[in-house]
């Protein structure tokens, strides 16, 4: 029943650090350091982590907006990793992206209708006149009324712009969408509108989401499976409900406990992590997390744990979590 | 309430901003009292005027803005009657401030220590060496490891969390009576945010500092404050005890806001979104600023702004739903 | 001269302009200059018509006070050493100066923008090579290069425009490259990439239009510089050759009559200054108008 | 070898660094200039060097003429009189015996004698000197020392202008020059002249001090300072502000201003330089037709040009000779201004509607040249000849001029320091001459004969005939003889020379 | 920092090579220099001889390679006009240009920065608009025109200053003013905008919130931060200063490298043109490197990181 639509194996994306490549070797930044993902059609898969953990790079690598260093990406039976320019373009009709910042993700000098119609024209899916009609329809679906499609992005508020971004992503009728922090730039009262819209569209357009966010509450609301990333690696992966009822990885637990309580008297045991996230240019040996882990052992310093299933659909990469769950 | 000493009192404060299209009130008749040792949260979405409010109290408005009416009392002293110099002294000694962006809040060209010591030297007359000792102490207090070396580091060499800790140390340096924290954790990651919130809470307890905490995040507010003021469109919608805010919200806006936010317990549920947009400063509606988005709005709401009504549990709310004709309308200062 | 975006949105260019008196005056002066340039031919006196017997006449309003004058029109601004009417010469000079600077800016713009786009978008070795050349030319004073080039290819209207153009492209290249690097960071470029736009399309359709504002601003400011540079070249005897007048050329010639005819030095100088000043003010106005940080602002 | 070279360059680098860092010579010049009351001459160009063996430009010569003496000396009116040679005997058409002045010493005490003369001539002719003057003296066959104070100079062929070249033959001290080397000698010359060099502050000034042991009466003024400022405006301003006693090349339009000032005068003298527009008839153009060339001569109002653009101090020329030149014929008259006649001639030549043509010129070389050229083209356009001005940088202009690559018309000035027709006609109007104009067998023959005639009366006659033919053939638009003009302070008594050299021996301060 | 300087050095080297190549190319496009130095009566054979004496008879590529290696050893050869070592000629002229350039720079800086800061602090007032307008006028006047007007004013009308020459501080006044006006205008504008930029930074607000006196904020924080773009501006403007000095030196008879360059370019005196261009470029590069080091001293982000 659940057909796998996206399969990512051992994906690695390293960057050269921007500083001097002139004298001395520059360290490479391991933004994504061996990630495996399998996303089923119709799913909404959440990718969670703090800034710099590589979640956005993962999303972009999957769409090959950033060239991954190694690994394989398979989308609906087609190899994304090795696709040439032409087939990549075709693939991009089906794999789209929604961006975090609705202010910078729209070309300020294009009219909204042109922005949304552009994918159709680029992919030669429609004649200009048809494209406009199609674009208007999608815009309407996304809550941008017909009367304002000739305006420029600057004339819209943040929430409306995000609707335009969504419309642009949907106009080629993609099957898979990477949504990178789609609401984090928006006010609370607007966030809800967009999150609801994304959920509605998922049903309407039978979409599969890779939903990237730092906000656990939002991820909980909109996803049905979740993976937690730390320093370029997935540390835990589970069904959303399972995860929130009992995360296993110490980092997941700390992360969850760090979320401000919802009500003032909610009694919450805080796990306050000490220290900062290490640099991805120079990750610690052994388990990435051991420098901040309240529970770390000697083993953690030496051996990096593998992501191992502990129950159905629930895997975790921790030497200790495995023990405790057993 | 009344047996407690009131530290900060704001009366009918109105702040105007001049833009290219005219002059608008960013803060529109705000009243509140803050008791010594308490923490008050000001919560609002972007453009609600919450930052303008805190800047008006600090007397640090941009050139285009000015307070047009109202009073600000600190310890009974009307700050608005002070000269620039005297105001500076008050800010340096009695008010500590923490801002949102920890990177740009430091002068990039001077060391962290220098910048924290600056006000100590300036206001407390400490010598360089004395200031250094005090600063290192402070850095330790805010949980910065190896404070001696951090003293000589530059802002860009510290992580965001460390910088925010340093910022807190800087705010605490002259042992102020009140700390105004404007979105102090917004730019931070959630685990770091938890650290900072924990630190602020501890400090508040230990030092019994009064805190004015400005944030857009209800969850963060819930962590740290005793009472909350919800602002929208430059006006106070509701001023209430933090428990009441969550369990017994009065204002339709507060209610809607609580329902709209995703929480850790809302899996798969549809959120109750608030229709419409947050109005910009220049496009604020007349009457109650929330009325175009309010499900319970009546015609009256669009015409006249509702007065502040005091309900039981000392919940104060500005909404026509609670304000009846025969009731005495208007502010009842509880001095 | 801060211009808010709201204001611009609502009022349009002229709406904003009328609120900025200085910029308005500058526009008017430049407009007058352009009108003068276009209609220079309709001025009753001929800029090239010499009459040695009326040489170095001071400014006057009396048409008939000088028998033997080449035309019956008064020499409002006096005459030069060949008895040519200074007003007519200045009018024609405005045309030539504007034309030379305009074409040199166009050349500089085409070369600079192209190289800047390529350099910024392709990056790598190409970028490195282009930027090294830009750096090199930037540490060489313009006059030095111009002297050498003009000395090599000889002066002349077209040559001067070419020299100015080919020494002026560096600022465009540097600026556009910087802009491309900045704009590349915006997510709408990534968005364009993600919807399958080709590099060329991204460059032309998404990046170039964003840089138009700053290009236009720089073109305006460069045009002012070009007029000065042309004047400097003329002063050094390397400008547009006589008898074709340019503002700089008239000033250079005015040195010969410096002690006998103040008007030849003063009037064209003031007009030159007014034009450059206006162009610079307009450039500043455009800079504010286009507010280059637009794409990222909220 | 390699290391050595590296070391050398390292040393040079160190030198550069020290020089830049110290920048000490900054105000040092002030001390040199603080000698009491020097005569200040502000010249438009700086000498390229002060070695008479190699440097022979006007700016250089204006200085060396004060530092060095020649065998003979040219007076104001162009006569050649004895100088370092007390007398000379012309032994034959090709041989001169010079009796040198005894007891003359160079500034450094070195004796002036026959060796010095021989050395000075032979060094010019020595290809190793790379002297640009070699060609001027290539008629000399040999120089023999007869005794310490007698010397014989033999020519390869009869050379009528020899005496002139002896006035330009400045004598250098062989011992000193060999000791310091040619490079240094250019900078620190030693001569027998009325003045000796004190200092040369490159780009700024040269200071001369009176030679008190001069073989003539020492000069009146003790110090002379030559400054170099290329901007004419600055020079005039310096004069008007009382900071200079003599300035070269003031713009003619500054005349009024300079005369208005109580302390300054505008000084003019007749020059030797004729200004004309060369007409190249060897390339294909309407100029091939003599009627066209004559028409062009008729078309220009030279009077007006002289009056308005040359301060009324130039003289119209009938050809390329001035009244002072040997061979000048007063019977040959200048073309009058007659535009009607010009049009008529053009029509006869088939250019009723005129034609277009280009003139090459370099600006800033002759008095008010840019205005004059424009005036010429203005006049020509009035008879229908449309002239396009091509102003070149002087270097490029010179190359194309002598490389025969100019446009059909070119604006030139030709100085004649020799005051002899040969110095003009041989170079300009003869077949295969330096400048390209006409090739006319009749003229060629007259000029060639004159070159080999030593009998002055016969020569004069030949030139007279040539002058007339040249006037008719119009190989140029004949314009005028350019004056020599200076701005001078009223405290200075000095008369300018027509050869444009600034010989300060005669100068006096009036109140001294 | 050392790495940073090393990197800048190598970059500068590349720049110098490009510059000398460009100059070589441009000069070889132009006319025959031998004609300039030869006597007008010289024959073709004489010319050929001179040409080979100066090595001008070899093919372009050979000359280029020779040329590069000679420049690398600072051997620029003899001037074609004066037969002196071009290097010496240029070095002798260098101090005068340095004095002029630096005094113009110093004048423009000490006058421009306070005006610019004042304009920014008084933004929107008449002080601000006057300062901006005056700075714009400064940029709109060609250097030579200013120079000529100054000569007329102070050399002729009120003859208190020498309009030409070199030697005393008085001689420096007019050239310095002419040269610094353009620069001054630029500095006023950059200082103004960078001060405004700094004023908009949150840390200024923080400093105010700490109750630091305005005086201290202005001097210690705003001035130092605002001076960074001004330094960049200075290094960019240096080429205009040197370019302007070509004109100014010619007008005032200032014995600097600019005048030498103009004269040599006219005279096609290759060795001197190359040597002066080389030193002008070298000077500008050294100057901008010194500014970069300054930059590092002011800005710890540059100092500590690189």
What does this 3D model show about the protein?
The complex is a heteropentamer of chains A (326), B (335), C (298), D (512) and E (306). Helices cover 33% and strands 23% of the residues of chain A. By secondary structure, chain A is α/β, with parallel strands linked by helices. Chain A has a domain of 81 residues. About 2% of the residues of chain A have low confidence. Chain C has ten helices and no strands. Chain E has 306 residues and is an all-alpha fold. Chain E has two domains: 70 residues, no CATH class; 216 residues, MetI-like fold. In chain E, helix 1 packs antiparallel against helix 12 and helix 7 packs across helix 10. The N and C termini of chain E lie close together (6 Å). The model of chain E has no long low-confidence stretch (mean pLDDT 84). The interface between D and E is large, with 63 and 64 residues.
Which strand order spans the largest sheet of chain A, edge to edge or round the barrel?
Answer: 6-7-8-3-9-10-12-11
Count of helical regions of chain A: 11
The assigned structural class of chain A equals alpha/beta
Radius of gyration of chain A: 21 Å
How would you spell out the order of helices and strands of chain B?
A: EEEHEEHEHHHHEHEHEEHHHEE
Overall average pLDDT of chain A = 85
Distance between the termini of chain B: 9 Å
Rg calculated over all Cα atoms of chain B: 21 Å
Q: Write out the strand line-up for the largest beta sheet of chain B, numbering strands in chain order.
A: 6-7-8-3-9-10-12-11
CATH T-level fold name of the largest domain in chain B: Rossmann fold
What's the domain count of chain B? Answer: 2
CATH H-tier superfamily of the largest domain in chain B? P-loop containing nucleotide triphosphate hydrolases
Total number of strands of chain B: 12
| Class computed from helices, strands and strand pairing of chain B | alpha/beta
Helix content of chain A: 25-40%
Number of helices of chain B: 11
Distance between the termini of chain A: 30 Å
Q: How would you describe the shape of chain A?
A: globular
Quaternary organisation: heteropentamer
For the residues shown, what is the average pLDDT of chain B? 85
Q: Which SSEs are present, and which pair or pack?
A:
The complex is a heteropentamer of chains A (326), B (335), C (298), D (512) and E (306).
Chain B: E1 6-19, E2 22-35, E3 39-43, H1 50-58, E4 65-74, E5 77-78, H2 84-93, E6 95-98, H3 112-123, H4 128-141, H5 147-151, H6 160-172, E7 178-182, H7 190-207, E8 210-215, H8 218-224, E9 227-232, E10 235-241, H9 242-247, H10 252-260, H11 299-303, E11 309-310, E12 316-317
Parallel strand pairs in B: 3-8, 3-9, 6-7, 7-8
Antiparallel strand pairs in B: 1-2, 1-4, 4-5, 9-10, 10-12, 11-12
Chain D: H1 2-22, H2 29-33, E1 39-43, H3 58-67, E2 72-74, E3 80-82, E4 85-92, E5 95-100, H4 114-125, E6 140-147, E7 150-155, H5 162-167, H6 174-187, E8 195-201, E9 205-210, E10 223-228, H7 232-240, E11 246-248, H8 255-260, E12 264-279, H9 290-299, H10 302-309, E13 315-316, H11 339-348, E14 355-362, H12 369-382, E15 385-392, H13 394-402, E16 409-414, H14 422-428, H15 441-451, H16 456-473, E17 476-489, E18 492-493, E19 508-509
Parallel strand pairs in D: 1-10, 1-11, 14-15, 14-16
Antiparallel strand pairs in D: 2-3, 4-5, 5-7, 6-7, 8-9, 9-10, 11-17, 12-16, 12-17, 13-17, 18-19
Chain E: H1 2-29, H2 33-37, H3 44-53, H4 60-72, H5 86-121, H6 126-140, H7 143-157, H8 169-199, H9 202-209, H10 214-252, H11 257-266, H12 270-298, H13 300-305
């Amino acid at each position: 029943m659940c057909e796998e639509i996206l399969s990512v194996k051992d994906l690695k994306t390293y960057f050269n650090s921007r500083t001097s490549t002139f004298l001395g070797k520059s360290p490479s930044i391991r933004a994504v350091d061996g990630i495996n993902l399998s996303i089923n059609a119709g799913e909404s898969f959440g990718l969670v982590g703090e800034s710099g953990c590589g979640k956005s790079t993962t999303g972009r690598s999957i769409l090959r907006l950033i060239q991954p260093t190694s690994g394989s990406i398979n989308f609906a039976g087609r190899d994304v990793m090795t696709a040439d320019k032409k087939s990549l373009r075709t693939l991009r009709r089906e794999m789209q992206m929604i961006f975090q910042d609705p202010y910078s993700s729209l070309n300020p000098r294009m009219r909204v209708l042109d922005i949304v119609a552009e994918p159709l024209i680029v992919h030669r899916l429609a004649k200009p006149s048809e494209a406009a009609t199609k674009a208007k329809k999608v815009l309407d679906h996304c809550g941008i009324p017909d009367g304002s499609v000739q305006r420029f992005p600057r004339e819209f508020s943040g929430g409306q712009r995000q609707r335009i971004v969504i419309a642009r992503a949907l106009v080629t009728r993609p099957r898979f969408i990477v949504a990178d922090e789609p609401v984090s730039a928006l006010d609370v009262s607007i966030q809800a509108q967009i999150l609801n819209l994304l959920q509605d569209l998922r049903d309407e357009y039978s979409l599969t989401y890779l939903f990237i966010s730092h906000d656990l509450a939002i991820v909980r609301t909109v996803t049905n499976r979740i993976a937690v990333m730390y320093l370029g690696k997935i540390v835990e992966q589970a069904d959303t409900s399972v995860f929130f009822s009992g995360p296993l990885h110490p980092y997941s637990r700390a992360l969850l406990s760090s979320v401000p309580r919802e009500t003032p008297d909610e009694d919450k045991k805080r796990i306050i992590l000490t220290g900062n996230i290490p640099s991805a240019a120079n990750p610690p040996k052994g388990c990435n997390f051991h420098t901040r882990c309240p529970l770390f052992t000697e083993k953690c310093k030496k051996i990096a744990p593998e992501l191992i299933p502990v129950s159905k659909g629930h895997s975790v990469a921790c030497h200790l979590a495995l023990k405790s769950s057993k | 309430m009344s047996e407690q000493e009131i530290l900060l009192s704001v009366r009918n404060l109105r702040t105007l901003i001049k833009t290219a299209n005219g002059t608008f009130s960013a803060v529109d008749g705000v009243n509140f009292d803050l008791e010594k040792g308490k923490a008050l949260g000001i919560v609002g979405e972007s453009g609600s005027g919450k930052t303008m409010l805190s800047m008006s109290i600090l007397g640090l408005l941009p050139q285009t803005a000015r307070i047009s009416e109202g009073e600000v009392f600190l310890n009974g002293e009307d700050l608005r009657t002070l000269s620039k110099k005297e105001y500076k002294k008050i800010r340096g000694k009695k008010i500590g401030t923490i801002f949102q962006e920890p990177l740009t809040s430091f002068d990039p060209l001077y060391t962290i220590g220098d910048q924290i010591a600056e006000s100590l030297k300036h206001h407390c007359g400490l010598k360089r060496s004395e200031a250094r000792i005090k600063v290192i102490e402070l850095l330790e207090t805010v949980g910065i490891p190896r404070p001696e070396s951090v003293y000589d580091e530059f802002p860009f060499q510290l992580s965001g969390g460390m910088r925010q800790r340093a910022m807190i140390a800087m705010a605490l340096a002259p042992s102020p009576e009140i700390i105004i924290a404007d979105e102090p954790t917004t730019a931070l990651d959630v685990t770091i945010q938890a650290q900072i919130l924990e630190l602020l809470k501890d400090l508040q307890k230990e030092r019994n500092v009064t805190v004015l905490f400005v944030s857009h995040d209800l969850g963060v507010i819930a962590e740290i404050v005793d009472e909350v003021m919800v602002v929208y469109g430059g006006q106070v919608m509701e001023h209430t005890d933090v428990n009441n805010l969550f369990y017994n919200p009065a204002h339709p806006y507060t209610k809607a806001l609580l329902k709209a936010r995703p929480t850790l317990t809302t899996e798969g549920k549809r959120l109750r979104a608030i229709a419409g947009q947050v109005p910009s400063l220049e496009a604020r509606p007349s009457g109650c600023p929330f009325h175009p988005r309010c499900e319970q709005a009546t015609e009256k709401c669009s015409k006249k702004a509702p007065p502040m009504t005091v309900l039981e549990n000392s919940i104060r709310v500005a909404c026509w739903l609670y304000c009846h004709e025969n009731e005495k309308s208007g502010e009842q200062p509880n001095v | 001269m801060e211009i808010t975006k709201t204001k611009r949105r609502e009022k349009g260019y002229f709406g904003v302009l009328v609120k900025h008196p200085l910029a308005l005056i500058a526009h008017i002066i430049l407009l007058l200059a352009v009108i003068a340039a276009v209609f220079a031919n309709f001025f009753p006196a001929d800029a090239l018509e010499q009459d040695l017997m009326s040489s170095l006449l001071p400014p006057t309003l009396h048409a008939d006070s000088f028998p033997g004058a080449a035309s019956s029109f008064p020499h409002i601004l006096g005459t030069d050493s060949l008895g040519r009417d200074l007003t007519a010469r200045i009018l024609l000079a405005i045309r030539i100066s504007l034309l030379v600077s305009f074409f040199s800016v166009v050349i500089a713009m085409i070369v600079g923008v192209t190289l800047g786009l390529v350099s910024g978008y392709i990056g790598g070795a190409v970028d490195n090579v282009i930027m090294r050349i830009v750096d090199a030319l930037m540490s060489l004073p313009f006059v030095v290069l111009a002297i050498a080039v003009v000395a090599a290819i000889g002066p002349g209207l077209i040559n001067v425009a070419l020299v100015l153009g080919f020494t002026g492209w560096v600022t465009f290249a540097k600026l556009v490259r910087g802009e491309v690097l900045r704009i590349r960071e915006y997510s709408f470029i990534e968005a364009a990439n993600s919807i399958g736009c080709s590099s060329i399309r991204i460059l032309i359709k998404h990046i170039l239009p964003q840089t138009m504002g700053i290009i236009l601003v720089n073109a305006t400011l460069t045009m002012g510089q070009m007029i000065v540079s042309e004047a400097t070249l003329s002063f050094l005897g390397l400008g547009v050759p006589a008898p074709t007048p340019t503002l700089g050329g008239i000033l250079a010639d005015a040195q010969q009559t410096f002690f006998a005819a103040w008007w030849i030095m003063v009037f064209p100088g003031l007009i030159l200054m007014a034009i450059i000043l206006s162009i610079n003010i307009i450039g500043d106005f455009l800079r504010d108008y286009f507010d280059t940080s637009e794409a990222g602002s909220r | 070898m390699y290391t050595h070279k590296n070391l050398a360059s390292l040393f040079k680098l160190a030198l550069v660094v020290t020089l830049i860092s110290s920048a000490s010579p900054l105000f040092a010049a002030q001390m040199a200039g603080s000698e009491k009351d020097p005569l200040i001459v502000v010249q438009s160009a700086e000498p390229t060097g002060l070695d008479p063996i190699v440097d022979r430009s006007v700016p250089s010569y204006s200085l060396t003429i004060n530092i060095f003496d020649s065998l003979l000396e040219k007076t104001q009116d162009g006569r050649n009189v004895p100088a370092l040679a007390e007398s000379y005997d012309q032994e034959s058409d090709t041989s001169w015996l010079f009796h040198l002045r005894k007891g003359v010493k160079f500034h450094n005490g070195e004796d002036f004698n026959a060796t010095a003369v021989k050395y000075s001539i032979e060094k010019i002719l020595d290809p190793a000197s790379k002297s640009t003057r070699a060609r001027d003296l290539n008629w000399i066959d040999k120089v023999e020392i007869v005794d310490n104070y007698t010397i014989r100079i033999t020519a390869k062929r009869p050379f009528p202008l020899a005496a002139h070249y002896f006035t330009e033959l400045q004598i250098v001290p062989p011992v000193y020059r060999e000791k310091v080397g040619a490079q240094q000698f250019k900078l620190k010359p030693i001569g027998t002249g009325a003045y000796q060099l004190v200092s040369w502050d490159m780009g700024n000034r040269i200071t001369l001090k009176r030679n008190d042991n001069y073989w003539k009466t020492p000069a009146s003024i003790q110090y002379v300072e030559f400054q170099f400022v290329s901007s004419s405006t600055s020079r005039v301003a310096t004069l008007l502000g009382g900071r200079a006693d003599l300035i070269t090349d003031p713009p003619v339009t500054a005349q009024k201003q300079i005369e208005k000032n109580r302390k300054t005068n505008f000084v003019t003298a007749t020059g030797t330089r004729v200004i004309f527009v060369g007409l190249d008839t060897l390339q294909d153009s309407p100029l091939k037709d003599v009627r066209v060339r004559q028409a062009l001569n008729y078309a220009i109002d030279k009077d007006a040009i002289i009056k308005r653009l040359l301060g009324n101090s130039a003289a119209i020329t009938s050809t390329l000779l001035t009244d002072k030149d040997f061979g000048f014929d007063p019977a040959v008259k200048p073309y009058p201004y007659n535009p009607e006649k010009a049009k008529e001639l053009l029509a006869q030549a088939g250019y009723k509607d005129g034609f277009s043509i280009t003139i090459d010129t370099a600006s800033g070389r002759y008095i008010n040249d840019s205005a004059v050229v424009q005036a010429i083209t203005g006049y020509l356009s009035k008879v229908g000849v449309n002239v396009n001005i091509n102003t070149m940088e002087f270097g490029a202009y010179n190359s194309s001029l002598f490389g025969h690559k100019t446009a059909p018309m070119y604006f030139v000035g030709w100085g004649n320091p020799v005051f002899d027709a040969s110095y003009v006609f041989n170079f300009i109007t003869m077949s295969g001459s330096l400048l390209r104009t006409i090739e006319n067998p009749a003229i060629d023959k007259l000029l060639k004969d004159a070159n080999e005639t030593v009998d002055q009366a016969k020569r004069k006659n030949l030139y007279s005939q040539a002058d007339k033919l040249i006037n008719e053939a119009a190989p140029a638009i004949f314009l005028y003889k350019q004056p020599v003009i200076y701005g001078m302070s009223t405290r200075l008594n000095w008369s300018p020379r027509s050869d444009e050299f600034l010989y300060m021996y005669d100068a006096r301060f009036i109140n001294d | 920092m050392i790495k940073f300087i090393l990197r800048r050095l190598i970059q500068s080297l590349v720049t110098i090579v490009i510059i000398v190549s460009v100059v070589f190319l441009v000069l070889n496009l132009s006319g025959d220099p031998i004609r300039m130095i030869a006597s007008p009566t010289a024959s073709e054979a004489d010319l050929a001889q001179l040409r080979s004496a100066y090595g001008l008879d070899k093919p372009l590529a050979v000359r280029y390679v020779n040329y590069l290696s000679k420049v690398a050893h600072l051997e620029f050869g003899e001037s074609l006009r004066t037969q002196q070592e071009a290097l010496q000629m240029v070095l002798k002229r260098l101090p005068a240009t340095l004095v002029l350039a630096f005094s113009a720079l110093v004048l423009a800086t000490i006058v421009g920065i306070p005006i610019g800061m004042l304009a920014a602090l008084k933004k929107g007032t008449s002080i601000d608009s006057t300062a901006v307008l005056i700075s714009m006028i400064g940029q709109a006047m060609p250097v030579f025109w200013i120079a000529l007007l100054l000569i007329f004013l102070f050399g002729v009308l009120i003859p208190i200053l020498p309009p030409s020459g070199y030697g005393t501080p008085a001689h420096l006044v007019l050239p310095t003013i002419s040269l610094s006006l353009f620069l001054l205008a630029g500095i006023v504008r950059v200082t103004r905008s960078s001060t405004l930029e700094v004023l908009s930074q949150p840390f200024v607000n923080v400093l105010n919130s700490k109750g630091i006196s305005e005086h201290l904020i202005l001097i210690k924080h705003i001035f130092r931060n605002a001076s960074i773009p001004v330094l960049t501006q200075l290094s960019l403007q240096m080429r205009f200063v040197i370019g302007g000095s070509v004109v100014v030196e010619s007008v005032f008879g200032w014995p600097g490298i600019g005048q030498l360059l103009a004269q040599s370019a006219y005279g096609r005196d290759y060795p001197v043109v190359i040597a002066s261009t080389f030193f002008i470029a070298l000077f500008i590069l050294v100057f901008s490197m010194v500014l970069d080091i300054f930059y590092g001293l002011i800005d710890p982000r540059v100092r500590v990181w690189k």
